What we know:
The chain contains eight helices and five strands, in the order E-H-E-H-E-H-H-E-H-E-H-H-H. It is of the alpha/beta class. 39% of the residues are buried. The chain is globular and about 45 Å long.
Amino acid sequence: xxxAIVVFSGGQDSTTCLVQAxxxxxxxxxxxxxxxxxxxxxIEVAQKLAKKLGVTSHKIMDVSLLNELSPSxxxxxxxxxxxxxxxxxxxxSFVPGRNILFLTLAGIYAYQVGADTVITGxxxxxxxxxxxxxxxFVKAMNTALVAGMDRKxxxxxxLMWLDKAQTWALADKLGALELVKNESLTCxxxxxxxxxxxxxxxxLRAKGLEQYLNNKEQY
Length: 219
């Protein structure tokens, strides 16, 4: 029986990945990380969607220590989300080490439940400039996890080479366009669905949706 772990935030990308995984694997476990993110509503949205979609199990893991070690606008209310880049050329919404920790813990969880696949919605084509969303990083993490646990494991990244319009097209193909559009939470300001319309995440999401809806025949 095929079994997968989906790193699940309740946002557009991870919800699309979860829907796809449920159609491709016999058993799907979702894991959501509580890292002191700006909006605890993210956890509630993930719980609601996981229940609605019927995952095998949904684990909420407290990793709030990340908040202390890696302050950013996604973990601190006193740091406004900005389109501007810091001195290292990274957005202030970057949480250093986040995906390193998430993929490590997801790999351990996969070992525990007997899954040989971990799925994450990171993307290098249409991303926010986070270095831990790159294909090079994911492949390195995959190699490290296999070596460190001496067990077969594949980290799959279905969205890695898709832009946001293509991600919307995938959600539509999976029959989940309305679900992702109306019930996921991608907004940095904590507004479900279409979001605030101003933050970098909402801007990217809205432009992708408009591009897809206006050019469906191309997808």
